[in-house]
């Protein structure tokens, strides 16, 4: 009687490394139910094939015909469980195997033998050729879709390709085909843990009375401990401690994103949430919970909050509605859904009133929205615009500060704060904000002009001479040394073109300098003809034309001799901030 067959050619260990291990053939710890023959197996005798390869007369081995044909095998057993002699299988669609001298040559098997496809796929997997391995497993599954081992191995290849969501579904399919497949449960547990599905991971780790290996168990317990602490800190509103605990577990990315949001670190929150693994659980999967809501719903819940803070109202509504579909019983989700809708309505009403120039009523509408979401930078900024129109500069300033506290890089709020400071004649603060805006909007002439006027007003408030200050747009000709020194000592940067009327290169680059003076109006552009003003050329040690020098507060910051237009523009832009 034939010995009990085992599951063959299984890729990976199913533990913490998600299957990047050796090829396993059976092995300890496998439940009895898993020892039945694989459906796709073609090299092992099935229950009705116990008489295959029985000794025949004269020491030969007779092979029972397959596919209705007759075949005879000569010689002793060879590799892969077949003989090293010749096999003629006249009626088989699997083709002809011809061997001799200890070698076996297989012809026609690769196209329709799932076991052979699996074997070669495993070899590619071990070499790190995950794409090729995946293709081979796909071909094998197309022939034998009910083979749980093939789906298990396909999951390993997908993990190698970082396609974790698909790997989850393959493990689930392997378990559906063979519910007692322990190693598939273990691999699925590892995958789910990496995706933050902690409760679901635990259920698979401990399925069928088995336990995960020590490393996976410690990882699971550490994450569960972090979740417990995060839950307590989150309930108290202690987001700094929540963030600290969430950072200790890579699986808690969504929790980390929410903590960043509450701490007004929106860029970090958005970046963190973008790294959350995409996982769509099957309809039959037991979903994990975190903070009292289903894990999938929690991700949408955090998405909605971040979208709201960034003013993406439509996206926020979509996200929270999706969360409500996933977990309609969550009180937190239901409350946020209600608030998001109310905030959206308040914002729309406020915008309509603002367009109608009913600024007082618009203020009230935006304020109503803020009662439902006090961390909405857009509503603060919109209300600041209303206060500005109503000439209530202090209130406008306060709302701009609130918006920038929530979203530090909010350009509109920064513009309105700078304008409000200018109205309040707080020139130092206005200049500071406009300088930041110039770095963010280098080609915005309105910002450049506002910065210039704020700089002039600041100098005037300090009793400084501003008679030589002008807003760009033209290149000023400098003739005398005293005029030159006064010009380069003015506030901001000055670009000086040392030229000669007779020089062709100077003539060619002069129009480009005119263009730059228009693009960078906050910079003073000067030109010195070294033939007409040799004293300036001597004082500045200019011997070659065209030479460009950039000055700031009277000091030379950079010198360029015969620069290309690209280099000149890049340097001017650098010193325009």
UniProtKB/TrEMBL annotation:
<dbReference type="InterPro" id="IPR013766">
    <property type="entry name" value="Thioredoxin_domain"/>
</dbReference>
<dbReference type="InterPro" id="IPR011990">
    <property type="entry name" value="TPR-like_helical_dom_sf"/>
</dbReference>
<dbReference type="InterPro" id="IPR019734">
    <property type="entry name" value="TPR_rpt"/>
</dbReference>
<feature type="compositionally biased region" description="Polar residues">
    <location>
        <begin position="1"/>
        <end position="12"/>
    </location>
</feature>
<feature type="repeat" description="TPR">
    <location>
        <begin position="114"/>
        <end position="147"/>
    </location>
</feature>
<keyword id="KW-0802">TPR repeat</keyword>
<dbReference type="InterPro" id="IPR036249">
    <property type="entry name" value="Thioredoxin-like_sf"/>
</dbReference>
<dbReference type="GO" id="GO:0005737">
    <property type="term" value="C:cytoplasm"/>
</dbReference>
<dbReference type="Pfam" id="PF00515">
    <property type="entry name" value="TPR_1"/>
</dbReference>
<dbReference type="Pfam" id="PF00085">
    <property type="entry name" value="Thioredoxin"/>
</dbReference>
<dbReference type="Pfam" id="PF14559">
    <property type="entry name" value="TPR_19"/>
</dbReference>
<feature type="compositionally biased region" description="Gly residues">
    <location>
        <begin position="13"/>
        <end position="29"/>
    </location>
</feature>
<feature type="compositionally biased region" description="Polar residues">
    <location>
        <begin position="40"/>
        <end position="53"/>
    </location>
</feature>
<dbReference type="InterPro" id="IPR044534">
    <property type="entry name" value="TTL1-4"/>
</dbReference>
<dbReference type="Pfam" id="PF13414">
    <property type="entry name" value="TPR_11"/>
</dbReference>
<keyword id="KW-0677">Repeat</keyword>
<protein>
    <recommendedName>
        <fullName>Thioredoxin domain-containing protein</fullName>
    </recommendedName>
</protein>
<feature type="repeat" description="TPR">
    <location>
        <begin position="297"/>
        <end position="330"/>
    </location>
</feature>
<feature type="region of interest" description="Disordered">
    <location>
        <begin position="1"/>
        <end position="87"/>
    </location>
</feature>
<feature type="domain" description="Thioredoxin">
    <location>
        <begin position="481"/>
        <end position="570"/>
    </location>
</feature>
<dbReference type="GO" id="GO:0006950">
    <property type="term" value="P:response to stress"/>
</dbReference>
